[in-house]
Write a structure and sequence with these properties.
heterodimer; A: about 270 residues; alpha+beta; Immunoglobulin-like; five-stranded mixed beta sheet; about 20% strand; elongated; B: mainly alpha; Cytochrome C Oxidase, Chain A; 2 domains
């Protein structure tokens, strides 16, 4: 083992160890952080950025921890050795390097971050608009184009959806993990969330903002279906064959709504 | 000696009497002005909280000297234990010695950390399986919320303990600049804590963030929380003012700013944030209290208010507050590493200035807590960039620590182990930050358990581990005896792997779809195994901390005598006897060298008059 702390061999050994650890850690991180089904176009963008983040995390974690562990083993004090370590107080070139390089990385990630953000929030021409109302502790989905109201969110696959959302009481937050994106519902204002479902299936929309006693159970079913099935579902609803709930989207009668919805929830 | 001679007992009695008087005052006013009904629970309780807290301060004696000043009576500072009572009683009453106040802060902090941790262990156990085991949603939410504020208040107290005990010692000052203000700033925490714990009786369910309208509609327990935080915040403001003045005005000859021990830099940066940001949470919580009490619609859209306004005010303090929590701990890491590496602190000036940089950038990033809140969409971009920038000064610290260890002569007693543990844990916390900063990925992870994992890693790495390192490191200076090294190492080797498991487990269940702050979860998520692991880890951490407390209590009696400087440190506090005497320095000190010049033979940091002159 080389004696001097600035011997080049130390840095070569540590460098190789950092590289190996980075690869292993990257695999490990992606194994212990399994994402839900990639259910929307936005999810692809977000998962790509997440993957870059995890690789960067694996590298930086390895860099610090490997060099730290290397020092702990190689530069540990021998028994009875009361001498001091090598005297160096710092290195301005190194300090500037590890200020400037991270700064560049920050701006690179900033650039990709902004690009991903604009990708996941971009409006599409042919959007389906759903008016979403959150209240303690349930959801109401209204389709303004057809006048349908429902406690279940049904959307066609591969078509952009736009949620115009508000809350009747406290702050809630709209989150379908498979779609990735999330947006708060705030009383007194309308917030918007866009996503384009890409995989058919049954999901749930969960309230992600603590909203009181039954926050944990503020969950509504979501179905992503083929366009034809979606149209059929809308038609059944408009024809009045569905439960009476479709009539209760009236904002002026909030109390009845809550009761009806609570009933529907418990069914 | 009677129980009544203990300030704490008089304070509690004062608070009870004051509480009753405050309630009576409100009832009497309502009667007088013809309000109907005369009995209204909420205003009566708030009256009780306010007058009760003043009652505590009068009872404990924190205002006594100031009352005397009003009447023109001289109040010379009393040094040493109180007359005619055992020495330990000084810790239970108003005492102006910064070392006593430091211990009062530290011990209260540990007790409160235990209470906060206990809440966590309770609801953690509930989460080990889906379905409801022994809690219902109502007390789950209350415990969760209590865990937040109890632990945060404990951290503020722990920081106060380290800063008050160490800063005057490290800069060779006789005491803090304003000893009475110092005692007042400590004691105002106690009625605050009592008030916070009283909220349990009524419950509150908003989490520590208490966003309106939920916190306006919820149970009356919220009022206790608002006022408790207000009182504890007042302590932060007064304490930080005192520290800033002490650091700027009471350094010895020769100690330029860049020759201060690095921990003092960290406290200075922390105090700048505390002094300038704490008002915002105090104000925001008062506004909530008045909205409930008087119907002022600050945050109510029906009355012209805005719910999101609260979030801005809250995070304008609460994000910088995270740096309040971690900067002193990072300072402890920088302080202890050179001693056990036997090498100078690598890049002293860069580390010192990086603390200031973190403090300043910390004021520009609050909006990253609000990416999903519904504020102007264009705001997401500047907050994304400013948040990522925090990585730069933080990285400087990590790399400089590596530079400090590289080529040293490293030894690993318990304090050093906790410093290394702190670095590894803070690294987990720091590296899981940028993924929450780039808005698109945050839209996924926001309000999930990933955030819980990130936050706890930051706080454990930035506060809890360094705090424990500091306790073990300065224990010989405080008690004159050495802690039990074996127990200390067991504590470390239980707590650190348990914490890694907990962190990764929380992040893992978060990514899988586990939301934050839910009393129950769907077993279909597949997160039950993760929760079991996290719960086991939580119990392990709790047990290891109990081991530490046993070690500290037991070793104070039986530990071997430590001597003045068991760590061969250059810092001035290690050149005086252990335990540190009443007047720390027998004669004024002069700084003649650099603080961390390990490896230069015969160099010293401070010059002291020979101990023979010490005849106090």
């Amino acid at each position: 083992m080389p004696k001097s702390a600035t011997d080049i061999r130390h840095f070569i050994i540590a460098g190789v160890l950092v590289a190996i650890t980075t690869v292993l850690l990257d695999l490990l991180l992606k194994a212990i952080l399994p994402m839900p089904v990639q259910g929307s176009h936005q999810a692809q963008v977000i998962d790509q950025l997440t993957s870059w983040h995890l690789t960067l995390i694996a590298f930086l974690f390895s860099l610090v921890v490997v060099i730290m562990l290397y020092s702990l083993f190689v530069f540990r004090k021998k028994d009875g050795d009361e001498s001091e370590g090598a005297h160096f107080e710092g290195n301005t070139v190194l300090e500037i390097a590890w200020t400037v390089i991270p700064l560049i990385v920050v701006f690179v990630f900033g650039f990709f971050g902004v690009r991903a953000l604009s990708d996941v929030t971009r409006a599409a021409p042919d959007e389906i608009t759903v008016n979403v109302t959150g209240f303690q502790w349930s959801w109401l989905f209204e389709y303004p184009d057809s006048g349908v109201a429902s406690n279940e969110l049904v959307l066609p696959v591969d078509r952009a959806a736009r949620m115009d959302m508000t809350s009747r009481d406290v702050i809630h937050s709209f989150w379908i993990p498979e779609m990735r994106v999330k947006q708060d519902l705030v009383p007194g204002m309308t917030t918007t969330l866009r996503f384009t479902p890409s995989v058919t299936g049954e999901y749930t929309v969960d309230c992600a903002e603590l909203c009181g006693l039954s926050h944990y159970s503020m969950v509504a079913p979501v179905r992503i279906v083929e366009q034809a099935e979606y149209e059929q579902w809308l038609a059944e609803r408009t024809a009045g064959t569905a439960p009476a709930l479709a009539q209760t989207g009236d904002e002026t009668d909030a109390d009845t709504d809550v009761e009806t919805d609570a009933d529907a929830q418990s069914n | 000696m009677t129980l009544w001679s203990l300030g704490l007992v008089r304070g509690v009695v004062g608070q009870i009497v004051g509480f009753a008087a405050g309630m009576a005052l409100v009832i009497a006013s309502r009667l007088l002005f013809g309000f109907d009904p005369v009995w209204n629970q909420e205003p009566a309780l708030v009256g009780g909280i306010i007058i009760g807290s003043i009652g505590f301060l009068i009872g404990v004696g924190a205002l006594t000297d100031w009352f005397k000043w009003m009447r023109g009576i001289e109040t010379p500072l009393h040094h040493g234990p109180p007359h005619g009572r055992p020495a330990w009683t000084r810790y239970f009453g108003v005492d102006y010695n910064h070392k006593v106040i430091g211990i009062q802060y530290g011990v209260t902090g540990i007790i409160l950390l235990g209470i906060g941790g206990m809440f966590a262990v309770i609801f953690r156990t509930e989460l080990a399986a889906s379905g409801f085991q022994f809690l219902n949603p109502s007390n789950y939410n209350t415990y969760l919320s209590m865990h937040g504020w109890a632990a945060l208040a404990a951290i503020l107290l722990g920081i106060g303990g380290m800063a008050n005990y160490l800063v005057p010692l490290m800069i060779g000052a006789e005491d803090m600049a304003f000893p009475r203000l110092n005692a007042f700033a400590f004691w105002i925490n106690v009625p605050g804590i009592i008030t916070l714990l009283m909220s349990l009786n009524y419950g509150w369910d908003g989490g520590w963030t208490v966003y309106p309208p939920l916190s306006v509609l919820g149970p009356v327990g919220y009022q206790f929380t608002f006022w408790a935080v207000f009182l504890i915040g007042l302590s932060s403001i007064l304490g930080s003012l005192n520290l800033i003045v002490t650091i700027l005005r009471m350094r010895p000859p020769g100690m330029s700013l860049f020759r201060m021990p690095i921990f003092v830099w960290a406290v200075f940066a922390t105090s700048l944030i505390q002094l300038t940001a704490t008002q915002f949470i105090g104000q925001a919580f008062l506004m909530l209290s008045f909205e409930r009490l008087l119907g002022m619609g600050f945050f109510d859209p029906d009355k012209g208010g805005a719910p999101i306004l609260f979030q801005h005010l809250f995070w304008f303090y609460s994000h910088p507050a995270v740096y309040i929590f971690v900067l002193p701990g990072l300072g402890i890491i920088s302080e202890i590493l050179p001693v056990f590496s036997r090498k100078p602190l690598f890049g002293y000036r860069w580390i010192a200035l990086s603390s200031i940089a973190i403090a300043l950038v910390g004021f520009l990033v609050w909006g990253h807590h609000m990416f999903t809140s519904g504020y102007g969409e264009y705001l997401r971009v500047p907050f994304m960039i400013s948040t990522l920038l925090v990585a730069v000064p933080t990285g400087v610290k990590f790399f400089s620590w590596l530079g400090t260890m590289w080529g040293g002569k490293l030894s690993f007693p318990t304090p050093m182990l906790f410093v290394l543990g702190a670095i590894s844990v803070f690294l987990i916390g720091g590296l899981s930050g940028p993924i929450l900063a780039t808005t698109a990925t945050d839209l996924f992870l926001h309000d999930t358990y990933f955030v819980v994992g990130h936050f706890h890693a930051t706080i454990f790495g930035g506060f809890v581990f360094p705090f424990f390192a500091a306790i073990y490191f300065w224990y010989p200076k405080i008690t004159g005896r050495m802690y039990d090294e074996t127990l200390g190492k067991i504590h470390f080797w239980l707590m650190t792997p348990a914490f890694w498991t907990m962190s990764l487990g929380q992040m893992s269940v978060g990514v899988m779809g586990m939301r934050r702050r839910i009393a129950d979860y769907d077993p279909a998520l597949g997160v039950e195994f993760g929760h079991v692991l996290v719960t086991i880890a939580g119990f392990t951490i709790a047990f290891s901390v109990l081991l530490m407390i046993y070690n500290l209590l037991h070793s104070a009696e039986t530990g071997r005598v430590a001597g003045n400087n068991p760590w061969r440190s250059r810092s001035p506090e290690w050149q005086i006897p252990s335990p540190a005497p009443e007047h720390s320095y027998a004669s004024p000190i002069t700084v003649v060298g650099e603080p961390y010049d390990y490896g230069i033979p015969n160099s010293t940091y401070v010059h002291m008059a020979p101990l023979a002159a010490a005849d106090d």
